[in-house]
Each structure stands twice: as C-alpha cells, then as structure tokens.
Amino acid sequence: MVVSFSSAPLQLGGQAMGAVTVCTDITDLIQTQEALREADRRKDEFLGVLSHELRNPLAPIRNSLFILDRAAPGGEQARRAQAVIDRQVGHLTRLVDDLLDVTRIARNKIQLQRESLDLTNLVRRTIDDHHSLFEKGEVHLETALPAERIAVHADRTRLAQMVGNLLQNAAKFTDRGGRTQVSVAVDEVARRAVIRIANTGVGISPELLPRLFQPFAQADDTMDRSKGGLGLGLALVKGLVELHGGDISAHSEGIGKGAEFIVRLPLDGESVTHTPTPVDLSHRNRRVLVIEDQADGAQSLREALELCGHQVEVAENGPAGLTRARAFRPEVVLCDIGLPGMDGYQVARAFRADEALKDVFLVALSGYARPDDLLRAAEAGFDQHLAKPPHLDRLEELLSSLRKRSPNLGPTS
After folding, report:
1. pLDDT of residue 369
2. In sequence order, what DSSP letters do the residues of 5-67 get, joined into one string?
C-alpha cells in the first residue's frame, strides 16, 4: 500500500490547538501511473522495432533494383534479384497484415466464416505448407496426428493462420539440430480439441512468460534482432483463438529449455463435409481498365497484367476512368477506393447507373479490408474486393475464372 499524508494546523482564536492530518491511499494512482509509463515505453520500443523491420526489406529491394538495371535480362543475376524482391515484398506484406489483423481484433472488427471442418486434416496441410521452414533451419519436425477426424466449427483460413503462426514461431526460435513436436488430440472430459506445439528451442524467461501474448512483446531485444518480427504473432494467435471460443497457454522451464504452446478449441458435433466448388481456370485474355491515381502502382499493375496476355488501359481518376471505359469497353475494372475528388464508391455507382457500362465486372482495390469496408463496397456496386497490394496469382485466377457478372463480394487478399 502507498499512502499520502497531508497536515494543516488547527487554530482557535489565533492560537494553535492542534493539527488535522489526512491520510490517503494512493496505491491505485501509483499503479496507474506506472502502467501508463510502461505502456509509453512499450510504444516507443515498438515504433523503433517497426522502423527497423520496415527498413530491413527496403535495403535488399533497392539493391536488387540496382542489379536489375545493370544485369543481363534473364540472366542468373537478374533471377536472383527478382527472387530477393519477391521474398522481401512478401515479408513487408505479412508485417502489414499482422498489424491490421491485431487492430481488427482489438476493435472487434473480424467476422469469422465458420464451417464444420476436420481439424486433423487442416493441421496436416498447414504443416505441409510450412515444412520447408524446418528443413531450411535443420529442425527435426515430429507429428502425432490421429487417424480419425476431429470436427471443429471454425474459420478455415483463420485456423490455418493460427497454426501457421505457431509453427513459424517454433521454426524461428529452435536452433539447428533441435526438435519441434506437433500433436492433435481430444480432451473428452472438457469436450475440446487440443493442439500442442512444443520445441527444444531458446525457451522463455519467467519475466516474459506472463506478457507473452500481449501485442509487441519481444523475446528478441538484442541490437541485431536476429530473429526479427514485430512481436504481434502470438497476440494475433491469442485473439483468433478466443474469437473461436477457445484458449491458448504457453509453458517453458526457462531460457534454453524450450517451450510448449497449447491451443484448446470447442468440438463441433456435426460431421465434417467440405466439397470445394470446382473452378474453371482455363486462361482467357480480358480487357481490363485500371483506375488508380498512384502512377507507379497503376503502371506496374498494367505491365503485370499485360505480361499475362490481358489488354489493359489505365485512368488516373474517376471521371477519366468513365470516359476511358466508354471507348475501351472493358470486361473488368480494377478501381482504387481512395481516389481524389470522385472516390471509388462514386465511380462504382456511376458505372452501375450507365446503361452502357452497368454490366462491367467491378473490383475494388483498397488498403482497407474490414467487414464494414466490404459491405460499403458491395452497396456501391462492386462485385469483388481485393486488399492492397493485390496478390497477382489470385488476381489472375479471378480474371481467368470470370464468367458472367454475378456479384459475390468477399474478403480477398
């Protein structure tokens, strides 16, 4: 307990008769001040880490661009430079996605697309997707997955994201020659599915363990930050697990003694049935209009689509896009939302109101991909929504499988 004392003399007729003393418990005030100072310190640390993590990929990207300007087209140097750019852009994209997801969870803006699915099969597929991380780090990966299905009512994409983040964490913090074990089982008493991911890695200090799942908690605070990351992965996993009605815990005997993460999810009594709808991926060239005010983004997207065989035109704003569309007659319009003057929502409404353009397939391009943003785009007349930067393979899949206009707005990254 922290106590504050204050005293004042008690006088009567100008003579001191005693004193009045006030004793106040200020424990809560002191704790609040300390919490604010700690939050401010963590914010400053996070901004420093964010700056470091964003600058790290920029250096190899810039170096690789320098090489591409001078290397022989199609040569080994050019291919290596292109691979570096691809890896580093992927890293930047994951950083931004993690930041957005943690914010969405904190603001209760994530909507789960639940279905009855087989947890065992999902974990097996996610392990396959991340197996190369363990091979590259020379970490032995052991699995104990049951033969039978374990049904849970969950969002397939988000559940794979949870497991993937925990696998990445294990691969990152386990030294060469170490071991990671993944198991899935059922707790019949609690009626819960249990995922365990244990490793023989660097371990977790007792000081960090209580705040391990807080945003921006960093196990690697060395100057070189050899492990990298923003400290958001475990906070994101915790948020997603809790959205599914589950819980997550971590255990470690200390530094150098490995760690274990345990996820518990409610079981689903329904049988698992998931039959994916076949998609016709036969390639077909499209007439595509890109409406984007950011010149580099518009031109690079144009060139990428032209390399895939599409005929592409570019407009730098909404009115220019409508004018260009009347002459070009595109099948698909990729429209930025944050356009100056006439924004993307107004552009979509103008297309739908124009008899000659109303059947064009409209795709929103936006850095905002919250449920409210998707709803607003659908109400404006967009058929699809792609989060920036659009994944070109998925964009090509969308263009290839397009048939007649049929609004099917959903989150796509």
Report:
1. 67
2. EEEEEEEETTEEEEEEEEEEE-HHHHHHHHHHHHHHHHHHHHHHHHHHHHHHHHHHHHHHHHH
Structure tokens at 31: 């704790």
CATH code at position 301: 3.40.50.2300
Buried b (16+ CB within 10 A) or exposed e, 83-122: ebbeebeebbbebebbebbbebbeeeebeeeeeebbbbeb
Structural domain containing residue 225: 116-266
pLDDT in tens, 108-133: 767 788 899 999 999 999 999 888 88
Question: Among residues of the chain, what percentage have pLDDT more than 70?
Answer: 84
Question: Is residue 381 situated within a structural domain?
Answer: yes
Residues 357 and 350: their CA atoms lie apart, in Å, by 9
Task: Say how far apart CA 5 and CA 25 lie, in whole Å.
Answer: 9
**CB atoms < 10 A from the CB of 370, how many?**
17
Asked if residue 408 is part of any domain, the answer here is: yes
Pairing mode, strands 287-291 and 332-336: parallel
End-to-end CA distance of the chain: 52
Same domain, 380 and 253: no
Instruction: Work out the average pLDDT over 278-297.
Output: 74
Q: Among 217, 232, 266, which residue terminates a domain? A: 266
Report the predicted TM-score, pTM, of the whole model to 2 decimal places.
Answer: 0.53
Tokens of 37: 């100072």
Say how many domains are in the chain: 3
Element (H, E) at 184: strand 179-187
**103 against 77, higher pLDDT:** 77
208 or 402, higher pLDDT: 208
Going by pLDDT thresholds of 50, 70 and 90, the confidence category of residue 59 is confident
* Residue 61 belongs to some domain of the structure: yes
Same domain, 123 and 60: no
The strand pair at 247-251 and 192-199 is best described as unpaired
Rounded to 5°, the CA angle 218-220-221 comes to 85
Sheet holding 247-251, edge to edge: 140-144, 179-187, 192-199, 259-266, 247-251
CA–CA dist 396, 400 (Å, integer): 6
> CATH code at 144?
3.30.565.10
Work out the pLDDT band at 88, boundaries 50, 70, 90: confident
User: Per-residue DSSP letters for 284-299?
Assistant: ---EEEEE-S-HHHHH
